[in-house]
């Protein structure tokens, strides 16, 4: 078993979590939300990360922002540069400034987005590239904006199934999620023994969530990726968090978990079923903070 790479996460307690509006297929205002249960599930998720040796910071929840628990949507942090979220729906609009203020107060370099994007929901680091979703919540123009900010290749992937409205509901970066350090050195301090270059990228995704063109891009770039079944995708099994060795996932994604174990990953099932009422699982609740690595400045990339 490979040791996991220590990660730095930002999370938000679901103190005010409820379903007071409907902006995705998972939300139903007619079904009561058990907020104490949501908090208990969130605490178990946070504690799981800490037990794995990861650093977890928290941002204070804001009354009237029930979806603030989905921290992954609040921003994207690559090489220590924070790209703010600009939400597609006005109900979530104030979340972006709240998260950006948290980072600014901590001394991070922040960039106020000009184009609509929903943070790590649609921007996933995969090695030295960033996979970028579009089709429902994030504009293609945001992909170019992010590429210019980070100096990395940004690969556009169109989503076509409204159940998978964010990229992180249809695709999981299993290995390489912290990205390669500038200059191609390992950013993980030796979490992949024997490798002299960046760790290889490993993915799992659900093909029908993507347009035919996006599926072709994924097949060409990641021919060995794990393909998830609809059975696992519809319980948000792909909304998982991996540190390169351990994968925290929804308990009902049983086939996916078995396939991951066959690949050598250790799987940890953490129930986030109450938070699923808002359309999010483990990954939605987890924003990764990727610090600037030592080394020469990365070269510019381009949006695809």
UniProtKB/TrEMBL annotation:
The EC number(s) attached to this protein equal 3.5.3.18
Keywords recorded for this protein, A-Z: Hydrolase
GO molecular function terms noted in the UniProt entry: dimethylargininase activity
The segments labelled Disordered in the record are 177-198
Question: Under which main EC class is this enzyme filed?
Answer: hydrolase
Name of the protein described by the UniProt record? Dimethylargininase
The organism of origin for this protein: Cellulosimicrobium sp. ES-005
The organism's taxonomic lineage, starting at the top:
Bacteria, Bacillati, Actinomycetota, Actinomycetes, Micrococcales
